């Protein structure tokens, strides 16, 4: 999960969602109360079940983690843009589109 969360695209998406959530909570007092209550409930349930569930599932989690890491490595090989920073992906995309448009313009004018 940490490796996926560390991918720049995933991290950026999480940041956007988090900012929108925080802004919504700040802007709407009624929603803030509901969200705060939900957050406390989730936190309580998580704390109560985490230790016993993790102890029981630890061997399985380790196996799944190993397979997931291998899958992420393969995905990274097939999609080399995943580990790149979002700014670089946008820059590369703009550059690629610009060059393609220039090629089309040149072909049309010829």
UniProtKB/TrEMBL annotation:
InterPro entries: Perilipin
GO biological process: lipid storage; positive regulation of triglyceride storage
Pfam families: Perilipin
Annotated compartments: Lipid droplet
GO CC, alphabetical: cytosol; lipid droplet
Keywords assigned: Lipid droplet
Family: Belongs to the perilipin family.
Protein name: PLIN3 protein
Lineage of the organism: Eukaryota, Metazoa, Chordata, Craniata, Vertebrata
Gene this protein is translated from: Plin3_0
């Amino acid at each position: 999960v940490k490796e996926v969360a560390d991918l720049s695209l995933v991290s950026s998406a999480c940041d956007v969602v988090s900012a929108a959530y925080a802004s919504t909570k700040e802007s709407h007092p009624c929603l803030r109360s509901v969200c705060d209550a939900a957050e406390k409930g989730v936190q309580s349930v998580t704390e109560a079940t985490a230790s016993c569930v993790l102890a029981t599932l630890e061997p399985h989690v380790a196996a799944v983690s190993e397979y997931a890491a291998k899958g992420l490595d393969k995905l990274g090989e097939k999609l080399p843009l995943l580990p790149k920073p979002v700014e670089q992906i946008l820059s590369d995309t703009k550059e690629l589109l610009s060059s393609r448009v220039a090629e089309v313009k040149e072909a049309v004018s010829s």
